[in-house]
Amino acid sequence: MFVVCFVIFRYKPDIHFVDKHREALIQRVSNIDSILDGLLDKKVIKREAYTKIRLIATPQEKIRALYEGPLQAAEICKEIFYQILQKHEEFLIKDLNGKK
Question: Which residues are listed as membrane-spanning (predicted)?
Fold first, then answer.
């Protein structure tokens, strides 16, 4: 008698860069106003959200507000955020890309 065992793996897509490095981005992004401008231009955030986030005191809280709102909307929002980060936080992104 033969016993056949099957191991079932659930497909799990790769975790997006901005999710993988959430904590580091919250702590280390400093050029937040330029990033907000880019998100507004690309229509990831609306003027009302832009204004509210700009009024938040610290860069860390501003990034958290993005994670709690617009970055949850769709994967494309995360991708646009990542592209804007590459432009305005080039050295931070290179540093994080070098870490596993």
Answer: none
Token pair belonging to 90: 């080039």
The DSSP secondary-structure symbol of 15 reads: P
Q: Is there a contact between 89 and 36 (Cβ–Cβ < 8 Å)?
A: no
The distance of Cα 69 from the centroid of its chain, to the nearest Å, equals 11
pLDDT tens digits for range 59-95: 999 999 999 999 998 899 999 999 999 999 999 999 9
| Domains of the chain by start residue, with CATH | 17-97 (1.10.533.10)
Q: How far apart are CA 90 and CA 14, in angstroms?
A: 22
pTM of the full structure: 0.82
